[in-house]
Design goal:
The protein is of the alpha+beta class. It has 13 helices and six strands. It folds into two domains: 166 residues, no CATH class; 158 residues, Heat Shock Protein 90. One of its GO terms (molecular function) is protein dimerization activity.
């Protein structure tokens, strides 16, 4: 049910008071004053000649119909009538008042009922057209009995002068006073509704401005996130490939200085092959920006290729335990692959290690990927680490993207250990496709690259 405003409640009580006072005046005129006072007049001292009072049975029927009219009036002003029934409601009310008029209600009394009904229509309808139709219909229903009386008087050849005098003598200024007061209440209610509408419009405009500002902010954040993603992709793909080719060219130069031309040719051939591979990887990276989540066997194979490429490039012995990689959530496969690649790239560039361990294992609700080397290590408080020299910034961003964590521990001469934790798929996440179809050759069980 809609919220009732105080003004609407006041109008409801006012109309009921109006109807009640009009009926009370009519009862007084019928029961006590007889033919010496206007039966529906609320103006003291006005004596007119009217028809005889109603019989008791008709009076009881009349009061019963008035009670029904008042109840329906209350229902209409209490928002208990659905809009699709408005026309049926007012048609029924109009016919009910017309019945009161036919039963024996005086014209000035039923005029009160019709005017109250028009005020009710002003409140219930939101447009002028329906209110005008109801007002016109009420006027026609009120005038219809007059027309029948005039026709009968003319048929009998009687003068209309006495009839019109009797009609005007029953006119009641109190009726108009009540109608004007009711109209004022309706106007105040509509003014209140208009003020609420204007306030809601201002609030809507303010919300629209806030929404536009939020949209601009989201657009800026989206661009920033895209730039960060591109920076990570360039760092983890193109930069690593370029680093590997530089190292191979340095080896080629060293072999040339030693006049070991055969070995230099072999390394140079590998460099050319690496350049072609880097070009293919760049094309794949561009394609993968629009591609769907990789299949699990493709992901595990990519990790193995990354490790094999690391060994071919550096000659560092690499032990890999990759059984639990099959549990990697599909949406996190790319991040795990990039973290492993970045960790191995850091080993190749900075560690001077002889052995590297790459392990993936499930720990409770996490997939933990560990890359550990036996190299020279570094000082965790060094400025190079905090400035992002070891690619730590990109690794931290990837950990944040997957809702995981990153732990990097090292010490001078004690090697370096990187632990990257990824949350496993929940019951609401889709299971990894083809998890059951991973062959032992792709699982990476106990692989050693020497």
């Amino acid at each position: 049910m809609k919220k009732q405003f105080p003004l609407r409640s006041s109008l409801r009580w006012f109309l009921l008071l109006w109807v009640g006072m009009a009926v009370a005046a009519w009862l007084v005129g019928n029961l006590f004053l007889g033919n010496f006072m206007g039966t529906a007049s609320l103006t003291p001292g006005k004596q007119v000649a009217v028809r005889p009072p109603l019989p008791l049975s008709l009076m009881l029927l009349f009061l019963l119909l008035v009670a029904l009219y008042s109840f329906l009036l209350w229902m209409g002003l209490s928002d208990r009538i659905q809009p699709r029934f408005f026309w049926w409601y007012f048609l029924g009310q109009g016919l009910l008042v017309f019945t009161l008029q036919v039963v024996g209600g005086p014209l000035n009394l039923t005029l009160n009922f019709y005017l109250a009904l028009v005020l009710c229509a002003l409140t219930m309808f939101k447009r002028v057209g329906p209110v005008l139709l109801i007002a016109a219909g009420s006027l026609l229903l009120w005038v219809a009995p007059l027309g029948m009386k005039i026709f009968s008087i003319i048929s009998l050849g009687t003068s209309l002068t006495a009839f019109w005098f009797n009609i005007w003598s029953q006119s009641d200024v109190t009726t108009m006073v009540f109608f004007v007061l009711g109209y004022v209440l309706v106007y105040l209610q509509q003014a209140h509704a208009q003020a609420q509408l204007e306030r809601a419009h201002r609030e809507l405009q303010a919300a629209h401005r806030e929404l536009a500002a939020s949209a601009r902010q989201i657009e800026g954040l989206t661009r920033l996130a895209e730039r960060q993603r591109m920076a990570r992709e360039l760092h983890d793909t193109l930069l690593q490939d370029m680093t590997g080719m530089v190292m191979q060219l340095e080896v080629t130069s060293a072999q040339m200085d030693r006049q070991n031309y055969l070995r230099a040719y072999q390394v140079l051939s590998q460099t050319i092959s690496s350049a072609h591979t880097a070009l293919v990887d760049a094309r794949h990276a561009i394609r993968d920006m629009r591609a769907k989540t990789p299949r699990i066997e493709q992901f595990v194979a990519s990790v193995q290729e990354e490790i094999a490429h690391f060994f071919q490039l550096t000659g560092i012995v690499c032990y890999a335990e990759l059984d639990d990689l099959v549990h990697t959530p599909p949406q996190h496969c790319e991040q795990v692959l990039r973290v492993i690649g970045e960790a191995l790239s850091n080993v190749a560039r900075h560690a001077r290690a002889r052995h590297v361990n790459v392990e993936a294992r499930v720990v409770e609700k996490w997939l933990e990927v560990t890359v550990q080397d036996d190299g020279q290590g570094f000082d965790p408080e060094s400025s190079e680490l905090h400035s992002g020299h070891y690619g730590l910034l990109g690794l931290q961003e990837r950990a944040q993207l997957v809702g995981g964590s990153l732990l990097l521990s090292s010490a001078k001469g004690a090697g370096t250990t990187l632990r990257f934790r990824v949350p496993l798929a929940t019951s609401h996440d889709p299971a990894h496709p083809l998890k059951q179809e991973v062959s032992p050759s792709l699982s990476g069980e106990g692989h050693t690259y020497v």
